[in-house]
Amino acid sequence: MSAVSAADPFGTSGLRAGVLAAWRDSPTRLREDAATEADLVRAGYRDRLLTELAQNAADAAAKAGVAGRVVVRLVDGAVHISNTGAPLDLSGVHALTALRASGKADPAASVGRFGVGFTAVRTVSEEIEVRSTTGSIRFSHELTWKALRDNAITVPADTFTPPVLRLAWPTDATPPSDADTEIVLRLHPDIDPQSLLAAMRAEAVDLLLELPALQSIRIGDDEITSTVTDLPTEGPHQREHEDPHPAHGSEDFGGGTSHPHSRHGVSDGSGDTLVNPTRGHTDPSSGYADPSPGHVDFSGGNPDPTRSHADPTLGHVDPARGGADPSGGRADPSDGRANPSDVRADLSGGHADLSGG
Please, which residues have CB within 8 angstroms of residue 334's CB and are 6 or more apart in sequence? Predict the structure, then answer.
């Protein structure tokens, strides 16, 4: 059992000793751990940094029953991502150092609480801290190499890179006073901090709509908030999540159920609603273009007979060329096919009108 103390509240000394003993006894195990981390960095979780950390934050907020808030700051070249919610605990530390395991107590209720997705931090950093109100830990490429040398562990080859997220050390650093946990990433020299933050800003709106436990995401000086309003209705517990992509005009996303008696809007912090809370269209006052004029109106005019197999007098498909009966353009109802003349598309509002049948 790992020894726990005020200086090492999660017993990382014992955890390190167990991993180092396994590596010393089996060089194959060291190679496997290194390959697992490298594979996750290269493929499984590449370009998912904010997504994975926001999912962890949403799970922490849901567990604590508080409004989730994520704040991303750039401090002396390092990226700090803090959040509200349940702080780091022993099971979380075990999950962080296991590569394969997950700290999710209820996988059906949580989407990313310190599972293997945390490996996404390795895409931008090899010096990582997890600071929490219950204790803080550090992962370090430099300290891992030192531990290998100090324990006389054989390294497979000159080009070998050890896994960073298997060995954790305690640190006395703490999160900001308005957060419960903070991830600190000291960036690789080839990572441009401003480009990284710009990519995170581009993800923020979708993440807020996909993760209802999160109320706001702040990237640098830009804060985006999510609000859900339940309006009076005859039926109980009816709630709507609008399409997170304003240009689509759809009323459903991510398997959510739409209902006209409630609304979900996302604000960029300036007071402008980026998604119209009533129908999912872009708010005209926000300065974004209304997508509806860009749609083609299919409700009027016949197709060009020289470009399609159609009867120009009726606008219906000519059966001589493999289509429906031109006398009425209606399919035989007994064969289960729809009547094409009764289906009209009205895209002026971004929706199709199929009521004519």
Answer: none
Strands of 34-124, DSSP E = 68-75, 78-83
Distance CA 70, CA 201 (A): 12
d(CA 167, CA 215): 33
Residue 308 above 80 pLDDT? no
Q: How far apart are CA 151 and CA 30, in angstroms?
A: 13
Residue 191 buriedness (CB in 10 A; 0-12 / 13-18 / 19+): middle
Total Cβ atoms within 10 A of residue 299 = 11
φ, ψ (nearest 5 deg) of residue 78? -105, 145
Helix pair 12-25, 90-98: axis angle to 10 deg: 20
Three-state secondary structure call for residue 209: helix
Starting at the edge strand that comes first in sequence, how are the strands of the sheet with 169-171 ordered?
Answer: 169-171, 136-140, 125-132, 181-187, 78-83, 68-75, 214-219, 222-230, 262-267
Distance CA 74, CA 267 (A): 23
Burial class, 311, CB count within 10 angstroms (exposed 0-12 / middle 13-18 / buried 19+) = buried
**Tokens found for residue 330:** 């209606």
Average pLDDT over residues 201-228: 94
Give tens-digit pLDDT for 145-164: 999 999 999 888 778 999 99
- The DSSP 8-state label assigned to residue 266 in this structure reads E
Residue type, 22: A
Cβ contact 39:172 at 8 Å = no
Tell if the pTM clears 0.70, that is, is over it: no
pLDDT top residue among 74 and 340: 74
Report yes or no: 2 and 11 within 8 Å, Cβ to Cβ.
yes
Token pair 């959510």: residue:
256
Let me know how long the chain is: 357
> How sure is the predictor about 5, in pLDDT bands with cuts at 50, 70 and 90?
confident
Which residues, in sequence order, are bridge partners of residue 131? Answer: 182
